[in-house]
Amino acid sequence: MSLPPEKASELKQLIHQQLSKMDVHGRIREILAETIREELAPDQQQLSTEDLIKALKRRGIIDDVMKELNFVTDNVDQELPSSPKQPVCFTDRQSTLLKKTNIDPTRRYLYLQVLGGKAFLEHLQEPEPLPGQACSTFTLCLHFRNQRFRSKPVPCACEPDFHDGFLLEVHRENLGDGTRMADSTTMLSISDPVHMVLIKTDIFAETTLVASYFLEWRSVLGSENGVTNLTVELMGVGTESKVSVGILNIKLEMYPPLNQTLSQEVVNTQLALERQKTAEKERLFLVYAKQWWREYLQIRPSHNSRLVKIFAQDENGINRPVCSYVKPLRAGRLLDTPRQAARFVNVLGYERAPVIGGGGKQEQWCTLLAFLCRNKGDCEDHANLLCSLLLGYGLEAFVCVGTKAKGVPHAWVMTCGTDGTVTFWDSLTGHRYLHKPINPDEPPAAEQPKPLYPYRTIGCVFNHQTFLGNCQPSDSVETCVFDLNDESKWKPMNEEAVKSVCAPGATTSLPPFPPLCASTIDASVTSNEIEMQLRLLVSEHRKDLGLTTVWEDQLSYLLSPALASYEFERTTSISAGNEEFQDAIRRAVPDGHTFKGFPIHFVYRNARRAFATCLRSPFCEEIICCRGDQVRLAVRVRVFTYPESACAVWIMFACECAS
């Protein structure tokens, strides 16, 4: 890649400063004089360049220089994972300045470059955006062995201009000695793929999952010089999983270069053996699952209509055991409590899998990376993530599959306490419900607990190790007894059979779970931006109605504690600080004046969309369009950030006017 002249001169200056700081020139002169004195034969007039480089290498000058220099990556975001492992390289999302990182010389790295795309035919007629014009963009997200990366956004086009490099550390976790550099044989046994997810973001910041691809990188181990070029065809998702959406040109390179490359035959044999082993495990599990299902139906023929979900299709249309979608997931220091984790999952957007035409719901359970990168998903995606986080906090958690009112299929999470308490967690709303079963044999006059939860029936529960089918006479949730060890009520699958295909590393077809990433949103800046946009929208709206607008800044500020209190209550189910807020408002509003306030909550940051929603509420419209004497308006926005750049946006509109 050629640099502009000003950048080239800047780079030369930096290199010159570094060499001057190390006094490399002086040391080279000394070695040159010494070499000429010791090694120049009487009949020789000059030394060759090769002889001088050998002398510099022998005395360690070149090694010293290489240790002092840093590798630089351009236009790449490495998202900061919650794990203690330090990031390899990253740049600020908004900045085009290069950032440097030290390379550990004892580690092995895979340098993955994306060198453009082609044949994205859906965007064949896409006009080239004008400078400064908003346009839809593609972003490529990667996950490899607990490391996550995100490319810079590029405009959607038939040939998108991807030019990014990602430095992936091929570290030896769980492989014994982590201090030595991984050699070719060791790396051949690392079956983790590079998971690549392509996201499209439109001009309204709405995201769409375009493709999800698992890159088998180990072909580079058998290529000459440890460098290989690949052409990757990306397929669509869901109903379009058999349709090509585009092609990426990818270059793979090992660093440091391999001392010994493997033969391509050895690499191909290893990959074939892994595929064969995985296929055999999956075949045996399928045979067992069919036998289990036959036994389950023999208990009662009516079980055939229950929602007992053993397999589910992922975004690529591949059937996988449901237990493989759940795994204990630790959030590091990003989330402190199980309830905070529930709030985080709740603020991720809800969207049913898109379906072309009618015919009911299209089923699509997303892999975790695809769900997190898109920042929204269906109820099953939310339930799988929440269950994984609760398992990470040491709770006994299960995903429940059943129905809500009107027989709508639904998934939620259940935890079982050591004292027998059963708690339902709704992953879409963040609400928690205690379950107390109704005894259908009690006389009609007996007082029974009234269920507050919206769930009607339950077919099965599962986590990463356990799968249980509900075999009680009724699948009604309110009469269900959750004694999961009672095989007359819950038919279990063999745990070893589940582990054979769902335990981490059991098969090469299982996508590894990515770590969560810290938010890149500045809460204060974003709150101010949305608030200023809302003020402008309110003023314009009132101007269209022939009304003037006067803002009361002090009143706006006094609304902050209320918004903080609302979010605290959503997270902890505890109400606090309301008395102080009411007292402050009473003091601020003069006698003979009326105060009205309207709080509302969103999980997106689009001010115009939020304002349109607010106007649909008669109470909010009454505040915004308030008429009268001495009308003062106030608006306060508070953005609460969560991992994966998810956020809860609280807005409160208020007004005071003479009664």
TrEMBL record:
Q: Which UniProt keywords apply?
A: Cytoplasm, Cytoskeleton
Tell me the ranges covered by the CEP76 C2 domain, including all copies: 102-259
| Gene Ontology CC annotations of this record | centriole; centrosome; protein-containing complex
Location, primary (coarse class): cytoplasm
GO BP, one annotated term: regulation of centriole replication
Q: Which residues form the CEP76 N-terminal domain?
A: 10-69
Q: Which InterPro entries match?
A: CEP76, CEP76-C2, CEP76_C, CEP76_N, CEPT76/DRC7_peptidase-like_dom, Papain-like_cys_pep_sf
- Enumerate the spans annotated as Centrosomal protein of 76 kDa C-terminal domain: 520-657
Oligomeric state and interaction partners are given as: Interacts with CCP110 and CEP97.
This protein is called what?
Answer: Centrosomal protein of 76 kDa
The record lists the organism as Bos taurus (Bovine)
